[in-house]
Specification:
Strand content: 15-25%
Structural class: alpha+beta
Helix content: 25-40%
Low-confidence stretches: 485-490
Number of helices: 20
Shape: elongated
Amino acid sequence: MAGTIQQRQTGLRQQPLVLLLVVLLFCGVMVSRLVWMQLLEGARYRELADENRIRLVPRSPIRGRLLDRKGRVLATSRLSYSLYLEPRLVGNEDWPDLRDRLARLLNLDPVQLDRERQRGPGRDGFRTTLALDLRPEQVLRFREQALGLKGAQVDVDILRFYPHGTLAAHALGYTQPITEAEYETLSERGYRIRDRIGRTGVEAAYESHLRGKWGGQMLEVNAMGEVQRNLGDRPSVAGKDLTLTLDLDLQRAAETALADKPGGAVVALDPKDGAILALASKPGFDPNFFSKLITTQKEYDALFSNPKKPLLSRAMNPYDPGSTWKPVTAMAGMESGKFPPETKLHTTACITYGGHCFPDHNGVGFGHIGYADALRHSSNTFFYQVGVGAGSKALKQAADQLGFQQKTGIEIGWEESVGLVGDEAWAAAGRGWAEPGTVPWIPEDMASASIGQSVVQITPLQLARAYAVFANGGWLVTPHLAQGTTDWLDADHRRKVAMKPSTLATIRAGLRKVVSAGTGFGLNGPDIPPAAGKTGTAEDSTGGPDHAWFSSYAPYPNGEIVVVAFAQNTPGGGSVHALPMAKAVLAEWNRTRPD
């Protein structure tokens, strides 16, 4: 009995010790946890606490405007107000009341609000879009009742706006939201997930100049998400305006001239420095389409899958040039030394090369003529003889000197094709579709190349650049769309063409004769200064109807403007369809140019 009592007393004496050890163990764990949280992970937990306590409200910059050469607005920004919901502040039990209040206050459909809420948060990850593009009176009503609409907010989106719609769309381009893949790299350059970026045209080429810098507010909030105080404000920095070389009046005239054509392009540029005055393409598109906050897949498909390819710039896409190419053949003949400026050749109904008789377009020829009359009448058989006699190497050299089969250097060059000037080397390499060495260069190829058919394809912009050489006295200029002291224009963008003065003078005289007494006579009129030019009718090597071309410059001899008009798959001849297009642009230029 006594032993049992002694054992119990010993156990009781040990209980405080056990309890003490347990308490010390728990305290040790707590201290260790605190040390780990405060010393080792303190910075991270402070950051998490700040994220819960501090909210950054980004403020997007206003993108710089695009202006024409006279300061008229071609692209600007507009404010769009949208209604948003912050799901973390509105539970399922609170939503019906908030939904009904918003529906009554803003005259919205409660069923649609339910549908939008079910879509969940947008790309920013923390709020859900309920309604877009609110009217001013809706925004005002919300502001008046905002304190009682916890969890809802009205925020502003800055969207690109093109006041002239489709006008100059391919030159201006458009903006689009950045993709998640782009954000992974662009975030390092200050872009945000809700940002928009220039996708094509000038909008893309001058993105860094136009975009500006984000700003924002730093707000302290409580656990309920209510703002307690403003901790700081950094205003956004607006992007810089960009003045373009485009002339709104000439652009409008160019697009009006294209209106009744199935497709085509008009290019007008200053031959002295390559400043583009008009760059029109049909079919076109409205860049405002890409400024919509929500676009359905059906709308996207209607634009991107359209067989007419409205997003393709015809001004920078290659086509068979027809007789507008003949000055290049003339240059090849004279520069090769085989057909000097005084050359006269007998023209006939047709000339046989290989197994094919290549005809003159009038069916009989034009007698014994030189370069000026050959250009004036657009004699095919004259230029067959020059081209075949000079050879593909000479033709390729002349084409290279005039800027063909290479990009022009325009800022939006990623949208530009280099075209094609076929020769023996190209044929030996497989012509782009055959096994090398299986389809050799033949005389028929050289005859076709001499008059800009089949194995020659160029862009309207390349042709305008080449004719600028004849207009400015022998300089190959670089087309450009921006005025001012942008980085792109800091360097010298023109070079002297290796061409004898006699060659240049002969071609210029021939192009003048085309307008004064030849196939381009229709260009003359009271509103048109003395001009030079060349008509062209080209078979479509893809199998469609003929193309119509007219390339011109005015005044003669030292041009101040080059205009190239191209009517795609518009049979009937360059003098019938393309010449009136160029004439309309020249008339507008003459009407508005300074005295």
